[in-house]
Design brief:
Layout: E1 2-5, H1 12-17, E2 20-27, E3 32-38, H2 44-59
Antiparallel strand pairs: 1-2, 2-3
């Protein structure tokens, strides 16, 4: 399960202020996204945006996520 937080955890003050946005569950054998949930106060689009940022940073490309239009 991949938990998505509202702030990065690289600074203690940000970690302390961070709230859980939601989480993704994956089937690592089939590489499929199997479950998504988001916490109150957030939307599905918030989670997809964060996933897009993570994918881009880790993989250099966006596969499942979707960036918000600015």
């Amino acid at each position: 399960m991949l938990h998505v937080w509202s702030h990065p955890w690289n600074i203690k003050a940000l970690r302390d202020e961070s709230t859980l946005v939601g989480c993704f569950s994956f089937n690592w054998f089939t590489e499929e996204l199997s479950h998504i949930e988001w916490d109150e106060g957030f939307e599905f689009a918030d989670l997809l945006h964060e996933l897009a940022l993570l994918e881009e940073k880790a993989l250099g490309d966006v596969k499942h996520g979707r960036k918000r239009e600015e």
